Each structure stands twice: as C-alpha cells, then as structure tokens.
C-alpha cells in the first residue's frame, strides 16, 4: 500500500469518527420527520395540478359535445332549406368537432387515471409518513432513555462511598468538638464568682423582706409576748418543738 493511500485511509477514519461522534440520532430523526412533512404540500400541489388538468379536459369534452349537437342541428336545417353548400361547410366543422371530442375523451380518460394514481400515491405517502413518524418518536424515546442510563452509569461509576463517609465522620467530629466547647463555657460561666455573688445578694434580699414582714405584724399587734424579735432558727438536726428532757428519777429540792 502506497503512502498516499495510507494517508487517505487515515484521514477518512479520522473524519469519519468525528462525524459519527457529532451525529445526534434524536436531531437526525427529528429533521427527517420535518423533511417528510415538508413534502406533503408539494405532493398536494402536484395532485392539484393533475386534477385541474382532468377538470379542464372534462369541460372541453362537454363543450365539444355541445358543439357536435349544435352542428348536427345546423346541417339538418341547411339540408331542409336546400342549402347544400352551407350544409357541406357545417359537415366539415362537425367532423373536426367529432375528432376533437374523441381525442379529448381519450385525454380525459388518461387524466382521470393519473388523478387516481396521484391521489393514491399521496395517501400512501401520508400513511408511510405517519408510520415513520411514530417509529421515529419511539426511537427518540429510546435514545433519551439510553442517555439517562448512561448518565446514571457515569454518576454511579464516579460515586465513592468511602470519600463521602470520611466527610461525614469529619463533620461529625467537628460538630461534637464545638458542642463540647460550648457546654464547657456554659458550665464555667454558671460556676463563676459573679454567679455566687448574685446568689448571696438574692438571699440577703429575701432576709430583708422577712424582717419587713415581721415589722408589719408587730405594729399590727399580731405577734404575742416575746415576739418582738425574730425567732431563732433551729440548729441543723434539731426540731422546732424540741424541749429539755426531764429526768424522772430526780428529787425536788
């Protein structure tokens, strides 16, 4: 194989591969459907021309038939009047009209057959176009499904569970560290000196309120004898109704 042949083969393989990659089956099928639909008006125009020729021949045949009848009547009238010369002229016109009528009848038969064939061809093309269109739409749907499956396969091929699991674990540890730090700061804030001082001040305020309440009761005479002062609170482990224990075995002095 010569060098030039090898170069041509390489170029054909290169450009053929590029064209094949750029060909989109969906776009090509859609364009094919549009081309088939665009041919329908052209077929309709062709059929209309054939049918117009048929109708024109039919009118000519009718006109020639009327002319033949009229010339025959004129010939009879001329013969009746003894005008053989005029009758002879009319006979010549009648023969020509009869020849034209016969020729037009033959042409009309061919035109009628052509019209039927044109209509049949147009109808067959429309049926074929509808069948091809339905088939093309089915192929387009299959192509879309194939593309979706290809995209899903690519996504699954590039999906790595280990990487995502590592990301989740890393984010979980980070959130746990932030939550622990926030909890420690909160605990430290609640056990600070300022918090303890606020508790002491709140307790002192409660004592002042109790003293004020006793003052109001004393002024209103609601406190009995010896109730002038605040009753001492019992010590821890003692009860408020505790009395001295009397020894039954002691003697009176």
| CATH fold-type name of the domain at 24-157 | Helix Hairpins
The parts where pLDDT drops under 50 for at least 5 residues are 229-253
The main pleated sheet reads as:
none
The CATH class name of the domain at 24-157 reads: Mainly Alpha
CATH architecture of the domain at 24-157: Orthogonal Bundle
Helix/strand order: HHHHH
- Rg, nearest Å: 60 Å
Pairing-aware structural class of the strands and helices? mainly alpha
Q: What oligomerization state is this entry in? A: single chain
Quote the beta fraction.
under 5%
Q: Can you give the mean pLDDT? A: 77
Distance between the termini: 152 Å
Helix content: over 70%
How would you describe the shape?
Answer: elongated
Beta strand count: 0
Give an overview of the whole structure.
The chain is built from five helices and no strands. The chain is an all-alpha fold and 253 residues long. The chain has a domain at 24-157: Helix Hairpins. Mean pLDDT is 77; it is low at 229-253.
What would the keywords be for this entry?
disordered C terminus, 82% helix, mainly alpha, Helix Hairpins, 253 residues, 5 helices
Brief summary:
The protein has 253 residues and is an all-alpha fold. It has a domain at 24-157: Helix Hairpins. The chain is 82% helix and 0% strand.
């Amino acid at each position: 194989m010569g060098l030039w042949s090898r170069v041509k083969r390489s170029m054909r393989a290169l450009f053929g591969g590029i064209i094949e990659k750029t060909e989109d089956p969906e776009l090509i099928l859609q364009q094919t459907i549009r081309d088939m639909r665009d041919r329908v008006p052209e077929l309709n125009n062709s059929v209309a021309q054939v049918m117009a020729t048929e109708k024109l021949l039919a009118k000519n045949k009718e006109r020639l038939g009327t002319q033949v009848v009229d010339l025959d009547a004129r010939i009879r009238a001329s013969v009746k009047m003894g005008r053989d010369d005029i009758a002879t002229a009319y006979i010549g016109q009648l023969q020509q009209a009869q020849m034209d009528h016969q020729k037009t009848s033959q042409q009309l038969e061919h035109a009628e057959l052509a019209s039927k064939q044109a209509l049949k061809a147009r109808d067959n093309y429309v049926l074929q176009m509808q069948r091809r269109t339905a088939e093309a739409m089915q192929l387009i749907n299959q192509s879309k499904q194939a593309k979706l499956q290809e995209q899903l396969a690519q996504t699954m091929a590039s999906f790595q569970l280990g990487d995502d699991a590592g990301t989740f674990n890393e984010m979980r540890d980070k959130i746990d560290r932030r939550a622990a730090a926030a909890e420690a700061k909160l605990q430290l804030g609640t056990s600070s000196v300022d918090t303890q001082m606020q508790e002491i001040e709140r307790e002192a305020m409660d004592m002042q309120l109790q003293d004020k309440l006793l003052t109001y009761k004393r002024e209103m005479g609601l406190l009995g004898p010896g109730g002038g002062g605040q009753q001492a609170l019992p010590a821890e482990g003692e009860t408020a109704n505790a009395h001295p224990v009397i020894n039954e075995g002691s003697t009176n002095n």
